[in-house]
Design brief:
Beta-Lactamase; 44% helix; 24% strand; alpha+beta; 660 residues
């Protein structure tokens, strides 16, 4: 600290300066409001504006902005945004600042970052732990004022100002800097929210345009309002724009239209329909089987405004199903007698074959006996089987292999798996091979289906990034996927076999038990609920669960539960309600003072949001009312205050202390 004789009290210099300080705050508030909906370069220009205005008001020569380091938490780096009265005189200090990173323990800006509060240093050149103290002294810089850019408990930056004279702290000026930091913080937060909305919109457009399925949006009467490229392809158009204005029902086969209209009504009532099948009618009159899932789009007030539908072409799947049914019919026909195919091989040809063998290969008996026998064996197995037969015939003491699984090829080219067994017999005065075959194609298909089923299980259950539980009707955990264990901090063996209620919050257990009981009593119906769960480490999380009870192969009822962590959403809802109640409380106290132009409680509340630069839609979300109602309130505010614009009303509210 300098000798008191060397200090000039800033408070004396600000005597009678209330009006200039107020003008400074109003000017910065308006610029910050504009910057909150601007691009990044315009936001940086707003910061330069603030530096210039504050330096001019305080008659200080240097102003600078620090921002959080993009590659490290808890550190500050120079934003390279300055107001410098004499660039040559302060060039060394500028370079030192731009090359210095500060953490929460280094320098005054670091202290401001860690505390979130402004700081005033009488002589920065003597400040302990200040990495730039020597450079500040060389430049002749003394007093330092620094304050944070704060919003939503997030520090977006630190502004610092330097004087060439040692000055005592001025509380009025520091309070004004807090207001400036808050205004800038709101601008940063609004800019960040705008960027996030733009990114979400771009992602939405990308998903719609790259979807392999047709996606259309219609009004509640079914008139197409939007469609993607794949929808145009489905319906036989060249461009999605050509679909606009058509009724979606025109593209449904006439015999399905009544059912489609009924499903539209059900979607409006229930919110969604899933996997409904229709015949699609294309522009050229051709048809295609499709599967449709649809849901309702609501406006901010929760009113239904449109339908969105995803349409999947089932042509290939239907063809495959038809082919599979045909194959199964053939299989049932060929195996209905349930007898082994039997044949005798000798001298390079078949001497005998029974009806089952002819039935298995689709040849008539005459054709089969006249056929070169290896033609019925699949090429992959032909050499092996031929070698086995010839070796057995050449060495009568060696028995042919039993239960050899191989493929055969029927007359129409179909491939089948058979379990083949052979033995040496005497036939017509010589040694021959007696072979029998059982068709095991169904078993092979079942094994392949089982393999695919296990892969689907791993994909849908174990590898799914959602929490999955299966629970018995008595509430005992039967299985839980890896993601569910990780989210709750348990090992699988710590959950399986235990009551599912063990992981729920004590206060919610009774309600959870009631929901599970009701779910078990309503087989096949999906139930939804939100409760709290307790992780192994004691942390409480909110989960949104969807559950459905079903009967297993053994008749036992089990419940499949899908869980989603909604803790962040619940906390945000609680914070929004708390902020709303706090604002309404402050507004109510302000109204009791009788200085609000006769504004109603709601109008004064809306004025606060207008002054904060919020749009009608944003205000509507915060207050739970419609944008139209907000617009009416804004018009009443301007009329009662005699203001010609939102900006004028905002500036007057700041100037006349109508904001709390």
């Amino acid at each position: 600290m300098e000798n008191p004789k060397e200090l000039r009290k800033l408070g004396g210099g600000l005597a009678g300066a209330e009006a200039p300080l107020r003008e400074l705050l109003e000017g910065i508030a308006l610029r910050a409001s504009a910057a909150g909906v601007a691009t990044v370069p315009e936001l940086e220009e707003a910061l330069r504006f603030v530096l210039e205005r504050v330096c001019r008001h305080m008659n200080w020569p240097v102003g600078h902005v620090y921002v959080p380091a993009p590659d490290s938490d808890g550190e500050l780096v120079s934003a390279r945004i300055w107001h410098i009265e004499d660039p040559i005189a302060f060039d060394g200090f500028r370079k030192a600042t731009e090359n210095t990173r500060l953490d929460a323990r280094a320098g005054v800006p670091g202290r401001v970052l860690s505390t979130g509060r402004p700081a005033w240093v009488v002589d920065a050149s003597r400040e302990r732990g200040c990495p730039r103290a020597a450079k500040a002294k060389e430049a002749g810089l003394k007093s330092l004022l620094a304050f944070p850019i704060l919003a939503e408990k997030r520090t977006h930056g630190v502004l610092e100002f330097f004087s060439c004279e040692a000055m005592e702290a001025n509380e009025e000026l520091m309070a004004a800097m807090i207001s400036i930091g808050a205004e800038l913080g709101r601008a940063f937060e609004r800019n960040r929210e705008l960027w996030l909305r733009q990114q979400a919109a771009e992602l939405y457009r990308s998903v719609i345009e790259t979807s392999p399925d047709a996606i259309i949006v219609t009004d509640l009467n079914g008139v197409v309002m939007m469609s993607n490229k794949q929808a145009a392809v489905h319906y036989g158009f060249e461009d999605p724009e050509q679909l606009l204005g058509f009724s979606a029902f025109e593209f449904v086969a006439p015999e399905d239209r009544e059912r489609a209209a009924e499903n539209a009504r059900r979607t409006l009532e229930e919110g969604a329909v899933r996997q409904v099948e229709y015949d699609l009618l294309r522009k050229d009159g051709t048809r295609a089987p499709v599967e449709l899932s649809a849901s309702v789009i609501h406006d901010p007030r929760g009113e239904p405004r449109a339908f969105i539908a995803v349409i999947r072409d089932l042509s290939q799947r239907k063809q495959s199903e038809g082919a599979l049914r045909l194959s199964e019919e053939k299989f049932r026909t060929l195996t209905q007698m349930n007898a082994a195919a039997t044949f005798i091989y000798k001298g390079g040809r078949l001497l005998y074959a029974n009806a089952a063998a002819a039935e298995m290969t689709d040849y008539s008996l005459d054709e089969l006996l006249a056929l070169e026998p290896w033609k019925t064996v699949h090429p992959d197995f032909r050499a092996r089987l031929r070698e086995t037969w010839e070796r057995a015939l050449a060495s009568p003491g060696r028995s042919p292999p039993r239960h050899l699984e191989l493929k055969i090829v029927t007359k129409d080219g179909e491939e089948r798996w058979v379990d083949y067994t052979a033995a040496l017999v005497q036939w017509e005065g010589g040694t021959a091979v007696l072979g029998t075959s059982f068709d095991i194609t169904e078993r092979k298909q079942a094994e392949e289906a089982l393999r695919h089923s296990e892969e689907r299980y791993r994909t849908l259950f174990q590898d799914n990034p959602s929490m999955y539980f299966t629970v018995s009707s008595a509430g005992i955990v039967l299985s839980v996927n890896q993601f569910g264990c990780e989210q709750l901090g348990f090992l699988p063996e710590e959950l399986v076999g235990k009551p599912v209620l063990d992981v729920f919050h004590q206060e919610d257990k009774t309600a959870v038990a009631a929901q599970l009981t009701a779910c078990v009593a309503s087989l096949g119906k999906v139930a939804h609920w939100e409760f709290r769960k307790v992780r192994k480490d004691g942390r409480v999380i909110w989960v949104k669960e969807s559950a459905r009870a079903t009967a297993g192969a053994d008749g036992e009822v089990l419940v499949l539960i899908v869980c989603e962590d909604v803790t962040e959403r619940r906390l945000m809802e609680e914070e929004l309600q708390k902020a709303r109640e706090e604002l309404e409380g402050k507004v109510e106290r302000l109204m009791q003072q009788g200085r609000a132009y006769g504004l109603t409680f709601r109008e004064l509340t809306v004025l606060h949001f207008v002054a904060a630069g919020r749009s009608d839609r944003e205000i509507a979300v915060n207050l739970g009312i419609s944008p139209l109602t907000v617009s009416k309130h804004v018009a009443n505010v301007l009329s009662k205050m005699g203001a010609s614009s939102r900006s004028e009303a905002s500036a007057r509210a700041v100037r006349e202390s109508l904001l709390v």
